[in-house]
Amino acid sequence: MKTYKIALLPGDGIGRDVTEAAKAVLEKAAARNGFSLVTTSYPWSCDYYLENGSMMPSDGIETLRSFDAILLGAVGWPRKVPDSVSLHGLLLPIRKAFVQYANIRPHRLLPGVQGPLRSENFDILCIRENTEGEYSGAGGRVHQGTDSEVAVETSIFTRKGVERILRFGFEQARARGGKLASVTKSNAQRYSMVFWDETTERLSAEYPDVEVTSYHIDAMAARMVMAPESLDVVVASNLFGDILTDLGAAIQGGLGFAASANINPDRSAPSMFEPVHGSAPDIAHLGIANPIAAIWSGAMMLEHLGETGAAGKVMAAIEATTARGIGASPGRDKTDAITASVLSALD
Amino acid sequence: MKTYKIALLPGDGIGRDVTEAAKAVLEKAAARNGFSLVTTSYPWSCDYYLENGSMMPSDGIETLRSFDAILLGAVGWPRKVPDSVSLHGLLLPIRKAFVQYANIRPHRLLPGVQGPLRSENFDILCIRENTEGEYSGAGGRVHQGTDSEVAVETSIFTRKGVERILRFGFEQARARGGKLASVTKSNAQRYSMVFWDETTERLSAEYPDVEVTSYHIDAMAARMVMAPESLDVVVASNLFGDILTDLGAAIQGGLGFAASANINPDRSAPSMFEPVHGSAPDIAHLGIANPIAAIWSGAMMLEHLGETGAAGKVMAAIEATTARGIGASPGRDKTDAITASVLSALD
Ligand SMILES: CC(C)[C@H](C(=O)O)[C@@H](O)C(=O)O
Ligand SMILES: CC(C)[C@H](C(=O)O)[C@@H](O)C(=O)O
């Protein structure tokens, strides 16, 4: 029997609640589809930081490297550890170290879910650059604490980084119908974003079957709300993709439904799957977090592992659940009840 | 009779159509309310660039300095001149030279206008930093055109710049009901955005009557769509404010309704008023651009000049127009018909 080694990083807050749910669903899907998952759980989190002084052990990255995939809950608990420490100590280093340069986030309404828009027919695949750009972490502060203080934050875009995410976007667009939207702000950011636009233009010659359009981030944000049905695959930088995918989560009914995959397309290191939502400390461990985003992320993991059949069955089980209204309204159903419904739909 | 000197910069594309409409409305409002506007129009634009090699004459800023206010249409016509040239040659230098550090944009539904959200009861005032931050223009490219190319773009935040926009935000919140949302991304941008958050925290001690909450930009974008009624005054950096105000325009029914003011709060130089929309070359001079955003921006100009009564009457005339369905549906009514309706509502 085929066996996959999965590292489970529940992380903080509701991350623990939803990864437990996802694990149960994925294990059942494996059993029913002739493969098995061996999961190893690591307690790396803000609590771990308070005890050990770091978000993960110094060999954390090396430990994770031997797995086939990573399933992560959520990282961060600002009242315990500043986000700027916790995220840079766990989530962001994994994305970078494992060259998970493509962060993929699907945005569509699950059956039975009512979104905030009047428009209901959209199916957007956002692809976010995940390793550099505006979140490079380069910068500093001078004259700190004085009237002359200046803080600088430098976005760094490399040819390799921009080319590979754009190629990934072109490939996804090719596979899905041929429409790609590239998002920049080249009218105001004349170095980074003009570079991105030029690269898009240059690569487009290699993908004559893909229709690519460039949008400014402000116009794209408006478009996602005004005309989401006009979009197909959207590719954007780290920050712009971050913003657009929360917006995508919003139009699909909320963060409880937004799944994501941090993909290393070369498969030179494990990819990581995580719901878009955060750790939501205020509702942690109350048993009311919606596990659907985490389960959907798990389905993306199965897909990535090549278990396409099982992935499809998990998606169908999610859809059967929300179609019955279970887990479809934010805050109404308990984590356990939603999980039980998905599990039974797998029968 | 009180006289105000207004510089008119129609700019490009529909900028010309809508400033003509706004000028007619403002002149009538002046005549009916006992003051007069003397407008001088300057043809600075992409066409001007093609003839003269620059977006405005070298003494353009000095020419504008003597006016009481500036009314601008829109700048940019990418097929003639790259946006990265046109905007940095006209719009952005004015904002910077005249220290128009507060860009104010109101977002609410006009009567008769149907927005894309199911939610209809919101009234948000976005305040965008307008002179530095992510649009500082600092950066460069090395190894250009080679595999090793790197593009960097540096956001620069000064203590003075951050303090003054936050104070402006606190003041506006105090005047409007006491709720301020400050938008950053301090979990991923640890220099600039942590600095902004610290400054917010420090200043909040001076405004104990204002309830201030910090949001991440991604969460705020989602909130504007999921729960816009929960927001009041929102203050954000140049880029984040840019994105949020296009999103604000979207939820208020589209860019045809989104007004803005680039304010120099110290009144050491003229302020500038402009619709949020761009030049829309595809519909330029067809007589179908919606002038409401430009007229609303004109009302903000009257307000700034101290003509509060006239400003209120222009707003009432706009509302009477959209309430009758005129100009309320994107693309349906002609520019002239909408303008005529606003004019007659001023009687
Ligand atoms: C928590 C934060 C650093 C993270 C990000 O911005 O990447 C999150 O918002 C996300 O979208 O995955
Ligand atoms: C045209 C562009 C430079 C401008 C900006 O980003 O400031 C516009 O988008 C706006 O919002 O006023």
TrEMBL record, chains A, B:
Protein location: Cytoplasm
Cofactor(s) the record lists: K(+); Mn(2+); Mg(2+)
Main subcellular location: cytoplasm
A Pfam cross-reference name: Iso_dh
Keywords: Lyase, Manganese, Metal-binding, NAD, Oxidoreductase
Domain Isopropylmalate dehydrogenase-like: from-to ranges: 5-342
PANTHER family: D-MALATE DEHYDROGENASE [DECARBOXYLATING]
Protein's job: Has multiple catalytic activities. Apart from catalyzing the oxidation of (+)-tartrate to oxaloglycolate, also converts meso-tartrate to D-glycerate and catalyzes the oxidative decarboxylation of D-malate to pyruvate.
Protein's UniProt name: D-malate dehydrogenase [decarboxylating]
